[in-house]
Amino acid sequence: MNVFKFVSPEIIFGPDTIWECGIHAVRLGAKRVFVVTDKGVRASGWLACVLESLAKNGLEYVVWGDVSPNPKDYEINCGSIQYIENSCDSLLAVGGGSPIDAAKAVALLVSNGGKLSEYEEVDSITRPLPPIIAVTTTAGSGSEVSQFSIILNAPEKRKMTIVSKSLIPYVSIHDPNLLETLSNQSMIYSGVHVLTHAIESYVSKGATPMTDLFAINAIKLSANSLRQVKGGSRSKELNHCLAMANLNAGLAFSNAILGAAHAITHQISGWFDIPAGIVDAVLLPHVVKYNLSANRVKYSNITEALGENITSIEDGSDRVIDAIASLFRELELPDKLSDLHVNLNLYPILAQNIIKDICLVANPKQMELNDVIALLRRAY
Amino acid sequence: MNVFKFVSPEIIFGPDTIWECGIHAVRLGAKRVFVVTDKGVRASGWLACVLESLAKNGLEYVVWGDVSPNPKDYEINCGSIQYIENSCDSLLAVGGGSPIDAAKAVALLVSNGGKLSEYEEVDSITRPLPPIIAVTTTAGSGSEVSQFSIILNAPEKRKMTIVSKSLIPYVSIHDPNLLETLSNQSMIYSGVHVLTHAIESYVSKGATPMTDLFAINAIKLSANSLRQVKGGSRSKELNHCLAMANLNAGLAFSNAILGAAHAITHQISGWFDIPAGIVDAVLLPHVVKYNLSANRVKYSNITEALGENITSIEDGSDRVIDAIASLFRELELPDKLSDLHVNLNLYPILAQNIIKDICLVANPKQMELNDVIALLRRAY
After folding, report:
1. Which band of pLDDT confidence, cut at 50, 70 and 90, is reported for residue B276?
2. Any bridge partners for residue A161, and if so which?
3. Which of A266, A287, A285, A268 is nearest to A340 (CA)?
4. A16, A195, A272, B300 - which has most CB atoms within 10 Å?
5. B176 close to A (CB below 8 A)
6. Could you tell me which of A255, A276, A257 has the C-alpha nearest to residue A151?
7. A127 and chain B in contact, CB less than 8 A
């Protein structure tokens, strides 16, 4: 019976809602929109839809279109200068987590000034941000509904997690049709990212009865969609299902925070510039093994949500690692950090950054430096 | 796979969160707060807590403390004049649905002008409202999270339902301790109100996968709490459970709208000045009987959520009316409109207003004037 808070953007979900982004920008008072995206989205054709919708609604825009995966602090500084030089008054991010996180960070700098590293403490943003609209083209990061922006501190090769209600986009658009341009492989990586978000937020110390509803639903939906995509299916229904899983997982982790798998992933993906979703998946079974005793009831519920029949809480929780690992084997995911070309010798340095990551605070079981290093070795 | 939207206020939930209202008012830029409440809340002592929190945070306030049950349009006009004459800049409603709906309507008039009847069309509010904080002292109306404000058009004896995103409070505070001052009877009426909100929003034409999660959870939680309260239990855990049910049902119906039971209740409770929750309960079994064929799967899920074991969708949906009626008998609720001193001769006039009520549009099965009159006769 703890106190909790729950925040959510205005959510627009459904086929063809990408065409609504111009209307929402007008409603939010935008005149000149800073459009943040990346190369992949430009190639997919979705950027063109967004720009057409803005133009149809009489809006001017500037496109900042080369955000890199794992966006870097120096990129954000450049973006902020462009936003100001072009006299923009609002932002529209279209893409996966990288463009959306980058747009949030630009919005933060242009309104509050200073350096991103000054905002690493939770809720340390004081001045209001310009309106942000997020259009997600993947089903993975959840950034379009979350309080998080994760940016690489490039000189330190360390990911900074900035957490604040102010970073929640004003409007979050979830158009399942946008998943059509993802390859089967990308759909699987997206879905696994959703699943790890859902599992970590469900057992997080910050979990609440509200986030639990979303997390457990996201586990069911993502596990089910992943199996079908792996089986060769692609359909509008599957896109819908995975987009809904992503929305649910995003609302869960935005309000419940995550855990050790994400704390570790942030730092590994940042250092080696590897996509976060795949690192998460390698780590998850090891993290669950470490955490299991902290909440057997919830781990048993996870086993059930993954589609297994269980006979008791003991049975369900005993089988959770197998359930996750067997799903990941079915999906043919890498299962060792060494497969991702992570350098074992760097573990002591990485571990120093990992124990400072805000997600580690929410992990259901306390984790010290030595525990992190031991876990990294087991996952190698 | 329809398009849907989902909106929610910032939610603060938990014991003693009533003391946070001053902090949130400061954060929203308030200097002079218009506090809206009623006689019962003043007597309960909760108003004093709210005022203490405002004063501690250096805020000035004016108390408008006599909102009536089923608030009337002429009251709102008086409240608006007081708000303006006292140079207020924000509102804090503390109470059940009546003070919260009244605060929303005052906020609407002082910012957008005109008459309330000009805003009966969905989303017809154009200018931003001053910040509203809602502190709910009951677990029934859900107004503290909803897009609705329901005000009696006194000359016409007709309830007006105003629906707009702009009416969602900025911050909604749910402190389960506040239920301690409710009598057992009031707890039961509150819980039944929550249950009818949850059931009607679950089968509404406006239901979405997001609102379904909340609605089905609210059915489980409220049915369970109601049985315990009737059995003589009162505890912090039960208050927590019912407050959570109310929050979930409120988020469900705010986004999914309701159905025929509420359309009819609005007009009966408005005309005869009877508490809405109890009229709902009398009508619900009759409305479910009328609607049953429209969605057997969902009605079967409701039977299960009410705590019954079911063997199939047919079995579950066949037994939903019995499940509801038997719970209501257990709670010793009135089961005929005649018990509420509703005048049979007025049915034709009431029915004219009922078919104009916005909630009827969302009812899962089309309802014409004759259907409404026939249902009213059966419920007499």
Report:
1. confident
2. A150
3. A268
4. A195
5. yes
6. A276
7. no
Collect all residues of chain A within an 8 Å Cβ-Cβ radius of residue B8: 6-8
pTM for the structure as a whole: 0.95
Supply the pLDDT for residue B1: 63
Q: Which residues of A touch B5 (CB under 8 A)?
A: 10-13
Q: Which residues of B fall within a CB distance of 8 Å from A247?
A: 210
The reply to whether B126 touches chain A by the CB within 8 Å rule is: no
List pLDDT tens digits, range A213-237. 999 999 999 999 999 999 988 999 9
Taking contacts as CB-CB distances below 8 angstroms, the residues of chain A near B13 are 3-6, 208, 210
User: Which regions in chain A score pLDDT beneath 70?
Assistant: 1
| Nearest chain A residue (CA) to B17 | A3
Report the percentage of chain B scoring pLDDT > 70.
100
